[in-house]
């Protein structure tokens, strides 16, 4: 292999890198050299990767040709490695400390008090289409227009309809009719007594099958992991929602082990996009995004390790919100990646994401101590009559425009509208080494996933995986300690670059994905698929949120020429969730009147 060794980049010291708009730092497009594979071809590829004879050489060529050696493994950097993207917090929160000891239901109530009056009621407004919100459910229950038990029966019927072979939407891996009805009956009784636990009481919420939620096993999208790792209690985020009375309706489908971007799962089916059932929903939180888009519930939980909440949310035309690393406890979530993954929220509106964020964002008293504890929780006041105005957006033009033309046009128009309506200022910046960041993130998430699963995979479990995941795990396992440490050195560099940019701007703005939802092909249904070209386009703008631990949110802003949704993403400063929610709320207000109803949609609160 020595004869084939690729030279590494010699990175300049961070203080010598020009981040201005007229910087001469080159923008490097994703250098993906891997053809799409599925079916028999994918099986053959996986067999070669797993071979002791051909595997090492093939993996070396893949890493070299895709510039992993050049930009990461053999690179020369001055920075020390940064292994966990925890951020210090300097602002004085002494006035907000009263929020520290509130229960989840009390935090939910405080969040509701921050909503504009028109949005905390079931006002139909003048929108051509709008999904039901948490407050719609609460108000309908409170006024006895409908009961949680009636809603549960409708949801069960809708899930059954979505599973019909004529649709085969593959929203769920598991749901329990009796458990849903039990929760619904208990909630109905509380409303009849005038004693709902919170506005979330009886509100249907789905949970990604990467998060522990009794009475269901946690499969991670596999056929075997739950047999080796039992689910004995609720994850912290689920426990919070349950204490608020939420009706947990089941475990949503996901890309197996979170190791892909399409949401095509050969064991539980390909989750289909409600806007076009022939297109992907995105991964890995595919089912969670699709059930919200289809109206089965106003909110679902996902886990975002590489855009896995924001990407499917954007493809399915809904909101995806990922907090700062460390903002929500990770207990009870499959440990597939320790330093990049976060529980996130998928919802029909940013207000609903805000309510759920308030419920689940808190530190467990028993959680291991950190040198940098998360700040006290505080709540933005959302105002529809006087939206936030003094906002500076950072935009890296070459990166922003590295997407399909219809996405670029739609997102650019949305930015122009913020200037015209709110007076927001957009400044041009340069964000260096974006391709290096993508590869360093890939090494990090791959190494952590491979390490986490190492105790389970020496036996026959590998043979029970989809072929796309088998191939992915071969690549993950080929990363060395040197690869991982170099990736963390790059993490440190990129953290410094982003800190400099945030000294000049409130948020960084990008499209959420480089492409819209692409077709589900038949050859991928039973094997999965490797499509690293589309995969790189889907994650292009989302890596900073995970690799650098930054909060980020996607808001639907329009549709492509085929009617498929387009999302706009805001990436915030560490711990800036209130500002990010405020900005997203203002952006949503500009575009919500143009939202379109999906082809597959269930009107759960309709009047008979």
Q: What would your notes on this structure say?
A:
With 608 residues, this protein is of the alpha+beta class. It is built from 20 helices and 17 strands. It has an 11-stranded mixed beta sheet, sandwiched between helices. The protein is globular. The termini are far apart. Residues 92-97 have low confidence and may be disordered.
Mean pLDDT: 92
Which overall shape is indicated by the principal axes computed on the Cα atoms?
Answer: globular
Task: Give the low-pLDDT segments.
Answer: 92-97
Helical residues, percent: 25-40%
**Whole-number radius of gyration?**
23 Å
Strand order of the largest sheet: 2-4-3-9-11-10-16-17-14-12-13
Q: How much strand content do the residues show? A: 5-15%
Number of strands: 17
- Output the structural class: alpha+beta
Largest sheet: 11 strands, mixed
Count up the helices.
Answer: 20
Termini, distance in Å? 70 Å
Write the layout of secondary structure elements.
Blueprint lengths: L36 E2 H12 L4 H11 L2 H6 L30 H10 L20 H9 L5 H15 L9 E3 L2 H16 L11 E5 L16 H4 L7 H8 L3 E6 L11 E2 L3 E2 L1 E2 L2 E5 L5 H8 L5 E6 L5 H6 L3 E4 L19 E6 L2 H11 L31 E4 L1 H4 L4 H18 L2 E4 L5 H20 L13 H11 L3 H22 L4 E5 L17 E2 L1 H8 L3 H5 L4 E8 L5 E8 L4 H15 L17
